[in-house]
Write a structure and sequence with these properties.
Length: 187
């Protein structure tokens, strides 16, 4: 299983949009990919869990975590093959945090890979935009606690990150400034 959760070696710059549910990760990942004319890696868990919910009326269970992690890494590793820059709508560290929050457990292999996989920077999405309800989101009243869990995991694992806040336009502008400054991009 471990080989399926590791990144393929690549020179591709990997930027991950990170944070709790309903903070604009997908929206910003798409916007940045469009701006930089590259690909973004979608959140595998959303498709996987939506299908499970639609077919069986079931939500995420502990035995879903590893298949979600494997699917996420497969999408990411495929995206790095043809790009010099990608935006990841999530990553294994996200899966690890959710596993610990929801199930008070994380598979040791997933945890090891989540900690060791490398991203050039994490863009931690703030909770200052409205929470949007859907049938997979379930913690509108715990946004601050969720944000702190995500932030804490970055600090604990010594990951390079910047907090992205403001309205959608401000978030995009801030992310572009950070990326351009960090990688000396001129777009």
């Amino acid at each position: 299983m471990e080989k399926y959760l590791q990144q393929t070696k690549s020179d591709c710059i990997k930027i991950v949009l990170y944070g709790p549910e309903s903070t604009g990760k997908s929206t910003l990942a798409k916007q940045l990919a469009e701006y930089y004319k590259t690909d973004f890696v979608q959140e595998y868990a959303r498709e996987y869990l939506q299908k499970k919910y639609d077919q069986f009326g079931l939500i995420c269970e502990l035995n879903d975590i590893l298949p979600i992690a494997k699917g996420q890494m497969n999408l990411e590793n495929n995206a790095t093959k043809n790009n010099s820059l990608i935006f990841c709508d999530t990553n294994l560290l996200t899966t690890m945090v959710y596993s610990k929050i929801y199930f008070n457990y994380c598979d040791p292999i997933l945890e090891r890979c989540a900690r060791s996989n490398f991203y050039d920077i994490y863009l931690l999405m703030d909770i200052d935009i409205p929470w949007i309800k859907d049938n997979l989101r379930d913690r509108p009243h715990e946004r601050k606690e969720m944000f702190e869990s995500f932030k804490s995991s970055l600090i604990k694992n010594q990951k390079k990150f910047e907090i992205i806040s403001g309205n959608f336009k401000e978030r995009k502008e801030k992310a572009i400034r950070i990326i351009n400054n960090l990688f000396n991009f001129k777009v």
